[in-house]
Automatic annotation (TrEMBL):
This is Non-homologous end-joining DNA ligase. The gene is ligD. Pfam families: LigD_Prim-Pol. The keyword Lyase does not apply. InterPro entries: LigD_pol_dom, MtLigD_Pol-like, NHEJ_LigD. Its EC number is 6.5.1.1. Residues 28-279 form the DNA ligase D polymerase domain. NCBIfam families: ligD_pol. Keywords: Ligase. It comes from Streptomyces andamanensis. One of its GO terms (molecular function) is DNA ligase (ATP) activity.
Length: 293
């Protein structure tokens, strides 16, 4: 029988705490829950009011991995949900608003993915994102070179960019925007991806064509579409090791020289938050949001 735990006044049954989810390191479900409790203060603001898609891996990354977008069966009545538009009609999704709902969701063993808009305004993007994905033998160091170019290009339009690791092989660039639909944001992101390819034709690719990917960095601009989601800051990833989509400084990106750099696991994050705070906190300030040109 799963132990009952009180989390900020909510009673939760947290199950299989000794189950090893990351065999490469022996990282258990209990450690997953501890990680999310530890980073809740910086993670929750990036989830709040955003419909959450769960990429679940209840038996670890080597087991079944599947997306859950609708409210899962058995969701407690105190977990906030919201009706959101879908192409097939409205759907109801979870909003992770507080520590109890975060721990309930973490008990499902999940990556957290969010759209670039909030539940109250699905027609207006408040973030723009670029997913930089290296095709081997390109590495995260090559992604860093592209990220620095995009940072300068965004700055030329008055938009300040911030970065995090994807938790896999690449980087994510994010910026706070206002006054644009997902369609307009996607179009602008595509324009910059095309410009980056023209500026660095030997390194950058703006199309997803698989045969063109080796040795290049694919600048995925499509995650700005209203229907798309991106791994949230501080989420664990379903990889061989408990890697995290971790915010990074531009100095770290500029200094990256190889594939073993800019890779952070759950055990690294508490110290990074202590030393840096939330490097993505400016994304949460409406005053820092800029209109697209």
């Amino acid at each position: 029988m799963a132990p009952i735990t009180d989390v900020a006044g909510r009673r939760l049954a947290l199950s299989n705490l000794d189950k090893v989810l990351y065999p490469a390191t022996g990282f258990t479900k209990g450690e997953v829950l501890h990680y999310y409790a530890t980073v809740a203060e910086v993670l929750l603001p990036h989830l709040r009011d955003r419909p959450v898609s769960f990429l679940r891996y209840p038996d670890g990354p080597d087991g079944q991995v599947f997306f859950t977008k609708n409210v899962p069966p058995g969701t407690p009545e105190w977990v906030t949900t919201a009706e959101v538009p879908r192409s097939a009609g409205p759907a109801r999704m979870v909003l992770v608003q507080d520590l109890p709902s975060l721990m309930w969701a973490a008990n499902l063993v999940t990556e957290f993915h969010t759209p670039q808009w909030r539940a109250g305004a699905p027609e207006e993007a408040d973030r723009i994102v670029f997913d930089l994905d290296p095709g081997p033998p390109a590495t995260v160091a090559d992604c860093g070179e592209v990220a620095l170019w995009l940072r300068e290009r965004l700055a030329a339009d008055g938009i300040e960019a911030y970065a995090k690791t994807s938790g896999s092989k690449g980087l994510h660039l994010l910026a706070a925007v206002r006054g644009a639909s997902g369609e307009r944001t996607s179009a602008y992101a595509k324009e910059l991806a095309v410009e980056a390819e023209r500026a660095m034709p030997g390194l950058v690719l703006h199309r997803m064509t698989r045969k063109l990917r080796p040795g290049k960095v694919f600048v995925d601009w499509s995650q700005n579409a209203a229907r798309k989601t991106t791994a949230a800051p501080y989420t664990l990833r379903a990889r061989a090791h408990p890697t995290v989509s971790a915010p990074v400084t531009w100095e770290e990106i500029a200094g990256c020289r190889g594939p073993r750099q800019l890779r952070f696991e759950a055990g690294d994050i508490a110290d990074r938050v202590r030393d840096h705070g939330d490097l993505l906190a400016p994304l949460l300030d409406p005053a820092r949001a800029h209109a697209l040109p």
